[in-house]
Amino acid sequence: MHAGGTDNVIAGESHVPQNGEDNEKFGVYKSLCCGAEIVIKAGTIFPDCPNHPKLTTIWKPLLDDRIGSLPEEHESESDPAA
Ligand SMILES: [Zn+2]
User: Fold this and answer.
1) What's the 9 CA to ligand 1 centre distance in angstroms?
2) pLDDT above 90 covers what percent of the chain?
3) Whether 16 contacts 60, CB under 8 Å
């Protein structure tokens, strides 16, 4: 018997979006069930997983590690004298 109202273990600050919910922030999201990556714009409802349309799909936001400063410099050719 269920004594509580929350089946989710997740509680608190980190809200994990699921299908059917409104997306608040543009970004790339990845389904936890099979790792399908999609781009969801702000104001768009999270869709079902393309591989698991009948299940509750949790979309985990991916960090944009492509955006930002690169940790390595591949081309570091600098002429000492011009
Ligand atoms: Zn899936």
Assistant:
1) 20
2) 55
3) yes
